[in-house]
Structures are given as structure tokens and as C-alpha cells.
Amino acid sequence: MLLNKDITNALRxxxxxxxxPHIQNYYNKIVVVKYGGNAMVGEKLKExxxxxxxxxxxxxxxxxxxxxxxxxxxxMLGRIGKKSxxxxxxxxTDKETVEVVQxxxxxxxxxxxxxxxxxxxxxxMGISGIDGHLIEAEIKNAELGYVGKxxxxxxxxxxxxxxxxxxPVVSTVACDMEGNAYNVNADTAAARIAGALGAECLISMxxxxxILKDKDDPSxxxxxxxxxxxxxxxxxxxxxxxxxxxxECCIDAIRHGVKKVFIMDGRVPHAILVETLTDEGAGTxxxxxxxxxxxxxx
Length: 298
Prior knowledge:
By secondary structure, this protein is α/β, with parallel strands linked by helices. The chain is built from nine helices and 14 strands.
């Protein structure tokens, strides 16, 4: 591994030159980054993610950061003596819990990320799915309470911020026309927002390297799949457990107009830059039809 003292100015220039075609590929295009879960744990890692986002913004990429915050919600519920309950991976959300979710996501977590981006030289603005009725929802399942099924996405608040040079930071709290607030899965929200924006790509940061042939072997990473491959991998049980809803969200994003989706390990330092600005890549790329793309031209 190269240390800063080992990198000459000539090598730095060469690295930047190699990134140029990738910068050109993403220049003035929208990239949606879904950020949450274990990828948000640890100040150093969070700092590196924010650096990646600011760098992309400064070279002309229109980055939209969509975040969850499950660990922080669990922590706050624990502080008030309320136990977290889950059904099929979704948080049971009664009236009190949705108020905590709104407070933590739209308040603490959202503003913390905006502040981080600001300290790295970024120009960020935090909003929630309630602002401008960005994310409208209805009850997904009565058993789950105020867990929202997205009915509509109104991206004007995001596009207004992008036009003014801001990095929109979106917390995944939704609303309905009666004024109810809903807890919405961050992967689902990011997919729908990316689709509504016609994003060049969606980057889904998770806690594994991507889609693996063998879930216990990181070296078995599958670098590229399309929708047909995904269907086969579902049937074969290779895509299983918690990866099922993530891949379903990827497919949903593509069907709503996103060109490509990356599933990557958000715990890897500077994974966003490795994926977007190098030939190497950092995870699994999901597309509509892999026969119609130049894989090297990510």
C-alpha cells in the first residue's frame, strides 16, 4: 500500500489523468448515493464517504445523498426504554416510534451529514421526504404500523437544490395528504428517487462486497449482472436473505429509468471513488441488459 510520503507529484498527476475519462463520463450527470446501516458506523469511515461525495461534486457530478439511520434510531428508542421490533427486516413503527424516527433521521442524522459535508468543503442542504411532499406514502402493512409504501416521488425540491449547486441530503421520512409521517426503507426510497431523477447511476452502500457466488467468500464477487441474471440468481438461492430486498430495489431503480446500480461495501475506504473514477470498480454493477453495455465504460 502506498503511503502519502511514497507518492510523488508525477504519480499524483498520473492518477488524476487516469480518472479523467471517468470524470467526463459523469460530468453534469446525477449520481444518487444510498448511505446507511453499518456503512455509517465509525467517524473515520464517515469522513471518507463525505470526502468522496464532495470531490465528485467539485468535479461537476450532481450528487444526491439519500440516507437511513437504523443504528441511531435503535439507540434513541433504547434511551427512552422502547424495544425495537422487526418483521421481515422492517421496523414495526407505532405512533411514538415514527415520531422518534422523524426526529432522529430528519434531525440528528441529516444535519450531522450536512455538517460533515460542510467541513469537507461541500455545499450541502438537508431535507426530508416530508419537505415539499418529496416522498408520499401510504401504510404498507397494518401489522407494521407507520411503515410507508411509496405512492409518489416529487423531485422538484431536489432538482431545485441541484440547480443552485447544493448537494441534497435526503432523510427517508415520508408523508401523506392527511399529515401522517411514515418510516420508509432507505433502499426503496433511494431507488425511487434515482428513477424519478433519471439518474446516471445509483450507488447502494452496504456491508458486503456485492453479490457473491458464495456468501462466505468475498473473492467470489460477481462484478456484473443484468435483470435476467438476477432472476436466475434468485432461483438458485445465490441472492438470498438480506440481499434479496437490496437487489429488488436495484431492479426497481433500473425499471424506473436508472442506467446502472452499484452494490458495494460501504466500509471500504473511498469505495465511491474507486467505483466511479477507476477501471477497477468496487462492487457489483446491475444493469438492464449487460449485452448492450461497454463494461469498461462504467
